[in-house]
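Subject: mismatched residue count in predicted assembly?

I count 705 residues in my input, but I want to confirm that the predicted structure covers every chain. Input:
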Amino acid sequence: MEALALVSPVQANRDAEPLADVTRAAKGDVRAFEALYRAHLPRVHSLVRRMTAGRDADELTQDVFVRVWQKLGTFRGDSSFSTWVHRLAVNVVIERFRTDRARRARMHDGEEIFNTIAGPRMTRDIGLDFEAALEQLPDGAREIFVLHDVEGYKHHEIATLLEIAPGTSKAQLHRARMILRKHLT
Amino acid sequence: MTDTWNDRLSEYLDGELTPGERVALDAHLATCRDCAATLADLRAVVDRAAALLPRTPETDLWPGVAERIDAPPTVVPFLTRSRRRISFTLPQAVAAGLALMVVSGGGVWVLNHGGRTTEAPLVEAAPQTGVLPVSFADPRYDEAIADLQQTLQDGRAQLDPQTVMILEANLDAIDKAIDQCRQALAADPANLYLHNHLAEARQRKLALLRRAAEMVNKG
Amino acid sequence: MLTAGIALALTLAQAQPPSSPREAPKTDETVPVQRGARLTINNFAGEVVIHTWDKDQVHVLARHQPRTQVTIRNNGTVVLVSASGTHGPQGSVDYDITAPAWMPIRTEGTYNFVTVDGAQAEVFANTIRGDVIIKGGTGSVTAKSVEGEVDVDGARGKVNVNSVNEKIRVTNSSGEITAESVNGTITMTGMDAVSVDASSVNGTITYEGRIADSGHYSFETHNGDLLLGLPENLNATFTIRTYQGSFSTDLPLQGVGRNELQRGRRVTTTLGNGSAEISLETFGGRIRLRRGTAQPQRGKS
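Triage response: the counts match. Full output below for your records.
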């Protein structure tokens, strides 16, 4: 399935991308493509990592940029390039989820699993900050929280992306927020 | 008894209630301290989420991308950029009076040699055979390891010698695994499996050190 | 009167056990409890053996040194059993406790050998040196030891087992299993798990049991072997990665040859409708998938 016409509001407000690199990359200029890759890597990888709780995040990020390279010729300029990349990234992650039938069945994970996470450490080590707490949410709740609260999608858009009911999206978002509020520092 | 409005607080926050529902919940919030506090927390969660910043991955993923788009590498993989090839041997580390993580021979638990250790290179030594590039520094990880090892060093006497021996043996096993990963990465620097496996081994070391530190703290 | 006096003296003599200077002091106490209460035992060193019964009472029998005092506190929510030294540090205490089967149990200590038999509620046992043996347990079952073996049988729910150095055995258990060791082997047999997350650095991981549709099973080592005995008519998607290990199977899996399994490359292959997810990763260990039993037959590798 190719890109759905869904635009992350967060992305939509970004400044217009210089198109020279995009044009050159679309013609096969790998150096130009690498420049685009490096410019967009942090946001793409962060989205992928947060959606997947780090599982295969690096490989999926590479999948995203390979998809970008393959689809460069279809970029029309009717959105900013960063918006277009971001949309492809969401689709690549969702496609991975769609091949995982079990994920939809886990939309109802309970909160108990979160209670097994240890509390603050006594030493100054890598603790359970908000980002780490996010990655440890149950899968369904995390995916929806990232799409809604981090990336700015609306529930009807998330419902289309994840093939769930809007009510499920709302319930999972609320569940995620209720879990995460315990880990605000 | 669960407050029935509790489940609607997110919708309230996102402006998704009907006007009638919003009025009713406003009235409820005026009288329910718990719901008001929960709403404040949810608002804080939303604010925190909006403030999350993008982070660059620790591994350079470009070589893998370049390989898949059939492009010749135009950027030298980061591991070979460094001209400084750094290695340590155990006698050097001890003689220098520094607590350094041994690269070629596996890690050495600080309790034997004292002081802090870190996997980041600190000293340039004379090139030796079997030299490995050591650009795997992760400051947060190194800081956590150093912290925990200091805790252990300070509380070593509180642990049973047999327990110390068991912990050392198992930390050594993990360090050997880390070392094998690094050696493999030296020959295969863009290998994602190795990078992930190395990260997992480091986390395992961290977890075991935490457990040991808890033993010390419990006395 | 003299006869009656002698009879009374005899009766009293028989009622009193013969005193022995070598017999350890005992604490023998029974406290009533109400549903919802939890049992917590903090014991620095010794043996903790817990049985269950159908009475709403906790019976504590403890053997200890004279300088050690055992205290049982019951605030209605928690029954806390602990010991302290009356003159200086406490000595070891051996507990024989009988508690209601419905009662959640938690025991912590340093040099503890723990046995819990017959619990039908949550069990948490954590020790540094000493074996942990749990038979039963429902909901959340946690068994941890640094230097000792961990043996869990018949647990149901979220089962979390951890031994740093010694072997871990989980048998006839169901639910979500998490097992971790550094050098110890992990052996899971007779399982009915819907998810498994097992990892070890050098220990061999063995799994025999049901693979549930839509279940998630993850097995990961550095150099330890991964041995799976899988049922017939399996519906699973296998994801296999090894850097310098080996792979063999008697299952009809396609595309998992030496050429595919190179340098940690991820290989995915499916049986049936691919419903369950089985992930197998090892840096240098052997991966063996077999029908039925996980152990190889004699004469075969």
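Chain A has two domains: 1-99, 112-185. Marking this ticket as 'not a bug'.
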